[in-house]
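Quick one: structure tokens for this chain, please?
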Amino acid sequence: MKPWTTIDEKQTPDGLLQLLRRGKKDFLIKIDNQILMNSHLSLTEQALASSAVAKLTKKEGALVLVSGLGMGYTLRAALDALPSRCSVTVAELNPIVVDWCKGELGELTDYPLRDNRVNVIVGDVAEVIMDAAYISKRPFDAIILDLYEGTTEANRDDMHPFYGFEALQRTRDALQKKGVFAVWTEGEDKGFERRLGRAGFAVEPTRPGKGGPRHVVYLAQPGRRTK
């Protein structure tokens, strides 16, 4: 077995972000020695995007937000499921990840950042959602969150910037009436499901793949608020 080699790294507010490689197509992304992504484990990322797009009633001309970029699997799956006339905004907090997907990682997913349907924003996806909801008032047809932190932290912090109650209300306001909010998380999260209901979403949890430990993809759409 060949050893892992660090090919690039960058200190970030969350810790040391590293890209490692073994052989030609075996990659890891780590932060402070915690594995965030493995190039051989991309099923959930692909299912996250493809299942969100499948829920859209309007795909032609759709406006889609994807965050974060990671190794590009979620973005590639969204592009493959969408027609030629659409627009996909990618929000990625770390510019070095964008550089990796334009370079070493791009070959894994056929360089999705080269697609003319894609617009990259280097910044906080929470600010992009805020803009769509209240400033530009240009709502998305789908918002797809593939962040390395899942939903469970928000069960202890209702002001969580992505999965807290107020954040979910902003996300609902940033969606078209028949839009789709798709989220990856580590496992079933009843607290998150309740917050989605209170924020006015109808929610459907799914488990892509078969057998063994499987992550959860939540598909939520604007509906009636629950108590």
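The radius of gyration is 17 Å.
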